[in-house]
Every structure is written in C-alpha cells, then in structure tokens.
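REQUEST ID: PR-0412
SUBMITTED BY: lab tech R.K.
PRIORITY: routine
TASK: structure prediction, single protein chain
INPUT:
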Amino acid sequence: MAFRVIDDDAALQDAIFALLDEPVYAVDTEFHRERTYFPRLALVQIAWPGNLVLVDALAVDLRPLRSVLTGPGMAVIHAADQDLEVLELVCGCVPSRLFDTQIAAGFLGMAFPSLGSLYEHELNIQLPKADRLTDWFARPLTAQQLDYAASDVEHLLEVHDRLRQKLKDRGRLQWALDECEQQRSRDRRRNRDPDEAWRRIKEARQLRGRARSIAQAVAAWRERKAAELDQPVRFILPDLAIVGIAQRPPGSIQELRKIRGLEDRHLRNGMAEELLQAIRGGMAVTPPPTRDNSTKELSRELRPAATLVSAWVSQLARDLEIDAALLATRSDIEAFLRGDDEARLATGWRAELVGEPIRRLVSGDAALAFESGGRLRLESRSHEPLADR
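STATUS: complete
OUTPUT:
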C-alpha cells in the first residue's frame, strides 16, 4: 500500500476528517526515550481502509488527533502500552476503544508475539528488517525508515480481522476485549509516582529502618528532578549512589563526594544542596512499608496450594492454548487464595474458568491427579483413602 507523509497541519486536518467516520483504524508510533525522562514522539503511523499516513510529529501539532482518539472508532495497536503512554502525553488522551493484537494473540496460544512473528504467523508476511538504533529524529527520514514505519501498520487491520474471527469462533472475543480495556484504562501515572520510585531499586528494597526512609526520599527527589529537567533518572543519580547514601548518609558536600557512584556532574548547579536536603528529610520520617499495607501475606497453610495451583494453571493454559500470563499469574493466584477484594480470578471469565476450580480444590471438593505424559487433571474428589492406616 502506498503511504503519504504528513508534515503540515492542513494535511493532518484532512486525515483527521477522514478518520472520524472510520470504525477501526491501526496506529503505531516511533519515539525515543534514551536521553529524556518522558518519551519523545517522532512519528505516528495510521492506517485505515485504502489509506496509510505517516505523521511527522516534529512538523505538526498532534493535539487535534485527540478528536479521533476520543471518537467511537477502535484503535488497533500491537503491544500498545508504550504507544498509549506517548499518545497520552502528546494528545492528552488514549483511544476510547482498543484492540491490542499482542493481547489478542495471547488468547490464541501465542505468548506475547512480536509484530513480525505475528505477521508471519497470520499472513505469511515478513516485515522489513529494522535497525534497532535508527534515529527517528533525523530529518529527512530515509526511504528505508519510511518503508519500515509504514509496514508496521500496513497489514495490522487484516491481522485484527483474522484474530477477531478466531477469537469469536473459540468464544474468547469478549475475554480479549476485556483484557484490552484493562490495558487501555490502566493508570500509567502510577509508574511515575515519586514516592514509590525506591521500590524499583532492587538493593533499596532490602534496606531497613532509617536507611529505607532515606532511600525513599532520595529516590523521590531524583524522580521529580528527572521529570523537571526531562532527563533519565540515571543522569540525575545512579541507583548505586542512592543505596550508598542510604547506608551511610552524608552530612556535607565533602562526604557526598565519597559516595560510590556519585560524580561531580551529579552535584552541579545546586544539586548537592538539594540532595542533602532530601537526605535530611528521609532521616526525619517513618520508613515506608516493604509492601502495600492492604496486601496481606499468604498464610503458611495456603502456600503449598499456591504452588500446586500454579502447576495446574500452567497445564490448563497449554490445554486451552492461552498464554499462561493472561490466564492467571502467580500474583493472581495468591490474591485469590487470600480473598483479596480485587482478585482477578474472582470475577469475569476467569472466575468460571480458573477461580471456581481453585475454590473447589482448596476446600477439598476436588483433587489433582497425574495422567500419562505428566499431565495434571483436576477432578472431583472421592474422599476415599488409598489404604487404611
């Protein structure tokens, strides 16, 4: 399919006008985030029947695209999470409806396939090879870059149609749509909550007492500073330095300079004083909990059940040809066994398929048995002992 490059606002308005009446359209984005805190959008690819446009995000104002995203049409995106993040940043919204082809493929037994493998599996089409390090901010873009960008959405609607029909035939279409809606409506701002940033540092999660308080305060300062300067957090302060500061909190600039991982560039332009203030703040507050207080530990009695159920879920996923992570993760299983109010296995299609059998197993009304080939079978329990003791 031929494509058009849109690099002026008038042409974008024409495309938007045409898209407003489309029930389904395909979207992809090209962006960089290696040297910034927020992803920087370079290109938006949009396809609808008979049309494919590449919108130069450096040349046009993309905010009017909001009218398409918030309209009644369904956006078809592959592995949509990061695309949704960048669209929300640039346009102020995410699509009102979403069909994620990676999620849909998971309900047909493909474990989170790449777009290339999905095209090959469904259409026997090979995507052009991509340069992983290509510079999407270079202008003009090369013919190879443009062809690659266009290929990402050229056949995406066809893949959507095929996956949708297969899901419908197997009675799983609504399952996939529900999962796509969860993906679409997820609060992505939580990933950038400064007060929770310390939890993403493995060594910081092992700290206790005052050291953990300092790690939380310094990591929160780093997160806010990175957002303010639009730089990656590692440019502001490396993880190693945060852990070192937490373990042996410095009280002066001279002591800061002795912290492993800290360099002069991290202490310029008043950063040293700000960092010391964050350290003092961390020393004065109560340590954060290792986990959310609302999350209870799984009781010792149920821990063996979680392991047993996990093995059965893996078997069930293979039997049903559903990606196991979509069926039930270990966290899902533990949340259900704890009786959490928002446990995924307690509602919707998962409740019938997974939740109810688990409930029967744990209550003693069902049992797991080995079959030939090492398969696990969940069956009604006879309550008859194998032999008298």
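NOTES: The two ends are 75 Å apart (CA to CA).
REVIEWED BY: pending
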